[in-house]
Design a protein that fits this description.
The complex is a heterodimer of chains A (302) and B (171). Chain A has six helices and twelve strands. By secondary structure, chain A is of the alpha+beta class. Chain A has a domain of 196 residues: Thrombin, subunit H, CATH 2.40.10.340. In chain A, the strands form two sheets. In chain A, strands 1-2-5-4-3-12 form a six-stranded antiparallel barrel. A six-stranded antiparallel barrel of chain A has the order 6-7-8-11-10-9. The radius of gyration of chain A is 24 Å and the shape is globular. Chain B is mainly α and 171 residues long. In chain B, helix 1 packs across helix 3, helix 2 crosses helix 6 and helix 2 packs across helix 7. Chain B is globular. Classes of the chains: A alpha+beta (302), B mainly alpha (171). At the A-B interface, helix 1, helix 2, strand 1, strand 2 and strand 5 of A face helix 1, helix 3, helix 4, helix 6 and helix 7 of B.
Chain lengths: 302, 171
């Protein structure tokens, strides 16, 4: 029977062949791990799609404000009153504050994060997020190996730890978020320096929480205690001392060997935009590295 | 001509992948975004039959599996979308006529696609998702796919019909 015959029954062999092809791909990739033959394909596809992802993100960012158009008349009036008051304040501030600095408020926060922690950062923007249907919580950022970003580097933003780089192509990199269920971070309690392991719960929405298991079960973390990274050898994948979140609740049960704390992360994973990748201070790439100590004070420029 | 068609379909699938992870990432409901690739594959099935849809399912699925920021084992979405494409193609004579039937097909395909992907993840332990969390994600993703299908499905189906090769008489 010809393939073009419109009356033929749909061929089962096509389905069988394609299913086998998929299963083969799964097997090859699952067995291959890091050396999987799909890794070069991932890289190539990442490089090809990077410009498209960047431009799609540029289009989408302003559109996220559309829901605000549909607010009620009353709330709009309230907003106007509030804004007028704020406007007056801002007029006053305008005289004293550099315009550039206010426009880059977010970047400023990142600069300060780098300044306070003494880290060298490469700035990058989030351009793609993995759908929840895939059950892995990763994002793509618009900087890659050409900017000196490689796997196992720490990613932070102006609030705290975001995650770590797990893959990098020339122009983009994939970041595993702290909140992913596969993510494990060595963490330290700010008050007692007690160490433990922090795991994500696999949710990134507004009430994302992390679970902390302390190594020493004699120690009880206090509520609102700040949790920071414990740091790894050579600062990979996590540098030490980056704030992660605060203790929200503490649980312990007799059959558990350790105390169990629930941590509220500082970072809002559902609205990530500007992030910084912690790099070696000597890194040279196609974008400037924010150096911690040598940061020019924005107030001195005007 | 066949090569040009193949190229057109590949570009269409890649655009769907980019929109899905980048553009709709900003309009997600708890991280759930509409699966545009699945909608394109279903449209191919409804307008052109199971073979083309299954092939597009394989290509589109691999694109989702390999395009950043995907971090799961390659081939999982491919397997799910091959089955979805084939199934959509098989019911096209019944579902291609009325809008309601087409929407029902989208809902069924979307449910089957996400479920197959989740099941393959459970089998491979990649990642180890609790069943409860998986079940929470499936209804919004089916709803979102349904919501977007009136905008995507007719256009995609028209495109697939227009670039159809000229019918040949085989006997």
């Amino acid at each position: 029977m010809s393939l073009k015959d419109p009356r033929r029954r749909p061929s089962r062999s096509v389905l069988a062949v394609l299913c086998l092809a998929s299963v083969t791909a799964i097997t090859v990739d699952h067995q291959g791990g890091e050396d999987s033959p799909f890794e070069p394909v991932r890289d190539a596809l990442g490089n090809t799609l990077a410009p498209a992802q960047e431009s799609a993100a540029v289009v989408a960012r302003p559109l996220t404000e559309i829901p605000d158009f549909f607010t009620s008349n009353k709330s709009l009036r309230d907003d106007i009153a509030k804004l007028e008051a704020e406007n007056q304040n801002l007029r006053g501030e305008l005289a004293t504050t550099s315009v550039v600095r206010r426009r880059a408020a977010e970047l400023d926060g990142l600069l300060n994060a780098g300044k306070e922690s003494g880290l060298a950062l490469v700035p990058a923007r989030v351009v793609a997020m993995e759908p929840a249907q895939s059950f892995t919580h990763t994002v793509t950022i618009d900087a890659g190996t050409s900017s000196g970003i490689y796997p196992d580097m720490t990613v932070i933003n102006n609030r705290g730890l975001v995650g770590r780089v797990i893959a990098a192509t020339k122009r983009s990199a994939t970041v595993l978020l702290l909140a992913d269920a596969e993510s494990v971070v060595g963490a330290r309690l700010g008050s007692s320096s007690e160490v433990g392991f922090l795991r994500g719960r696999g949710t990134v929405d507004g009430d994302a929480r992390l679970d902390l298991d302390l190594v020493d079960d004699a120690e009880t973390p206090g509520k609102d205690d700040v949790v920071v990274t414990w740091g790894s050898r050579n600062g990979t994948p996590y540098v030490a001392g980056v704030p992660i979140g605060i203790v929200e609740a503490v649980f312990s049960s007799p059959r558990d060997q350790a105390k169990h704390a629930v941590i509220t992360p500082f970072v809002d994973f559902s609205s990530l935009d500007l992030v910084g990748v912690v790099v070696n201070a000597a890194t040279e790439g196609d974008r400037p590295v924010i150096q911690a100590g040598e940061l020019p004070d924005p107030d001195e420029e005007d | 001509m066949a090569l040009a068609r193949g190229l057109l379909f590949t570009v269409l699938l890649l655009v769907a992948v980019v929109l899905q992870v980048t553009f709709f990432g900003y309009f997600s409901y708890d991280g759930v975004v509409p699966n545009l690739v699945l909608l394109v594959v279903v449209a191919a099935g409804l307008s052109r039959g199971p073979e083309l849809a299954a092939v597009l399912g394989l290509v589109g699925g691999l694109a989702i599996d390999l395009a950043p920021p995907a971090d799961h084992v390659a081939g999982r979405w491919a397997l799910a979308l091959v089955v979805v494409g084939y199934a959509a193609g098989r019911v096209r004579h019944d579902a291609g006529r009325s809008t309601l039937a087409a929407l029902a097909t989208v809902a069924a395909c979307s449910f089957a696609g996400v479920s197959l992907f989740t099941l393959s993840g459970l089998l491979l332990d990649d990642p180890a998702v609790p069943v409860g969390e998986a079940l929470a994600v499936i209804p919004p993703s089916v709803l979102y796919d349904l919501l977007l299908s009136p905008f995507v499905l007719p256009a995609a189906m028209r495109l697939f019909r227009r670039v159809q090769p000229a019918p040949q008489v085989a006997y």
